[in-house]
Specification:
about 20% strand; about 325 residues; 4-stranded mixed β-sheet; 5-stranded mixed barrel; alpha+beta; about 30% helix; 9 helices
Length: about 325
């Protein structure tokens, strides 16, 4: 049962004060020389955004066998094994399309991204009745509209990382990542969606591991599903809200509407605490990431959306909007 309005308002005020105090804390000193946020992509024009960071050679190979359900996160997920004995994380629901496209754009300009692929249908043997996501299952264990993410061998996922407290705070690459979040409108910026991976050489790779809330509104609306992968909402508004001398503010992230502020107090306070991510970005750093994005051709961008299972008309629409916002960055 929901708490009375008076109690929710009290909780709201406490959490609001907490997020305000967190936002004012100073960033820690940079420490690890093996920490990596961005890697020079070199020849961006040659990158294949249809196959993405995993390439054609790493795509999943049917048939697939059920391993277990994954209870983590808000979207229904499960693990499967393919015919090459590779383990894949399967995500169902509204984030399957946008996450595949967004991860390819992140990878194209040098940021770490998951190896993932989209499947309109996925046949899975030994599939039990799912505790979450059974509505995506057809007869015979056929799953509809899924994202498959490869579990990389030899790569260890360690702790989440925080947008403010990390070794890259204030760097050009960190500011470029802030712009990327605004460009693709990945509005769920909770630290739990970030992770550090340690590879065989001991490098600590900082990644935004969940970009499934991309390509819709600049913030959660009344239903989160309608805020993701929604071309009508994605078309609305410009990327840049204000140019202030040597810095820029983005139209991102947007605060939730009034009803969500009342009934999802914790989420509202979390988003309010993230509002600074789109503010006071050095103009030179915004131009830098814009110059990398400008090297992508319309066909490359379109391929990212084709790979994500969007129709040709939707892929064209998303591509047109992205190009216009990349041009905003390059006019700074």
């Amino acid at each position: 049962m929901r708490a009375p309005i008076k109690n929710r308002v009290a909780i709201f005020l406490v959490l609001l004060a907490a997020t305000s105090s967190v936002a004012q804390q100073p960033a820690p000193a940079r420490t690890s020389s093996k920490a990596v946020l961005w890697t020079d992509p070199r020849d961006i024009r040659s990158r294949n955004l249809y196959w993405g960071p995993g390439g054609e050679q790493h795509q999943p190979k049917p048939p697939f066998e059920f391993i277990q359900e994954d209870p983590q996160g808000t979207n229904p997920k499960l693990d499967v094994r393919d015919s090459k004995d590779k383990k894949w994380g399967v995500k169902l629901g509204a984030e399957a399309h946008p996450e595949v496209a967004a991860s390819r754009l992140m990878w194209a300009v040098g940021y770490a991204a998951n190896e993932n692929y989209f499947a309109a249908q996925l046949q899975v043997s030994n599939l039990p009745r799912l505790r979450r996501g059974q509505n995506y299952v057809q007869d015979g264990g056929n799953l509809l509209n899924v994202r498959l993410q490869r579990h990389l061998p030899g790569e260890k996922r360690t702790t989440p990382w925080d947008w403010r407290h990390n070794p890259f705070y204030g760097t050009r690459e960190w500011n470029g990542l802030r712009v990327m979040m605004g460009l693709i409108r990945n509005w769920d910026l909770h630290g739990a969606n970030n992770a550090i991976f340690e590879d065989d050489s001991g490098r600590q790779i900082y990644a935004v591991t969940d970009v499934g809330t991309a390509f819709g509104s600049p913030g959660k609306r009344y239903t989160s599903a309608g805020s993701k992968g929604n071309l009508k909402l994605f078309r609305k508004g410009r990327l840049i809200a204000k140019v202030k001398g040597d810095s820029v503010d983005l139209n991102f992230p947007a605060m939730p509407p009034l009803l969500l502020r009342i009934f999802e107090v914790r989420f509202y306070c979390q988003q309010r605490g993230m509002k600074w991510i789109g503010e006071n970005i050095p103009r030179t750093d915004a131009k830098w990431i814009g110059s990398l994005l400008a090297q992508l051709s319309p066909d490359q961008i379109r391929d990212a959306f084709r790979a994500a299972g969007y129709s040709p008309d939707l892929a064209d629409g998303f591509t047109t909007v992205l190009i216009s916002r990349i041009e905003e960055l390059n006019r700074l």
